[in-house]
Every structure is written in structure tokens, then in C-alpha cells.
Design brief:
It is built from two helices and four strands. The protein is an alpha/beta fold. It has a four-stranded parallel beta sheet, with helices on one face. The termini are far apart.
């Protein structure tokens, strides 16, 4: 029931399908590179996926304790 976190979410190729599959869950992505991060932010808005939260910061400086699932690939 907790959030799903992707470490290094890139262009959103996993975040977006996860957000569609699990609309009731908070989907969190961390991405440092500006263009992939910006692309994901734009796609999130265009697709109306309000359960996606994308942060442009290093996940090593984040509290991941509340996550139910942590993905990294």
C-alpha cells in the first residue's frame, strides 16, 4: 500500500506504466539528468498522472524508509 520508488528513473519508461497500473499508489522517481527528468515531468502533466512525483536529486540523500517497493535497473 506504500509508495513505489524508482532510483534513476530516466525518461519515465517504467514510472509511467507503473502509475497507470497502480493509480492508487504514489509513484516516486529520482533522476539527476536534466533532460530525462524534464521529459518525465512533461509526460506526467500531459498524461494527467497525478500519482507520479519526480525529483531531480540524488536518491542517496533521500529517506526511502516509507517505500513499499524500491526499483533500480
Amino acid at each position: 500500500t506504500g509508495s513505489i520508488v524508482e532510483l534513476g528513473s530516466g525518461w519515465g519508461s517504467l514510472l509511467i506504466p507503473l502509475a497507470k497500473q497502480y493509480p492508487q499508489r504514489k509513484i516516486i522517481g529520482y533522476e539527476l539528468s536534466i533532460m530525462p527528468w524534464l521529459t518525465t515531468v512533461i509526460l506526467k502533466k500531459l498524461l494527467g498522472l497525478n500519482n507520479i512525483h519526480v525529483y531531480r536529486k540524488n536518491f542517496l540523500h533521500s529517506d526511502l524508509a516509507s517505500a513499499s517497493v524500491i526499483l533500480c535497473y
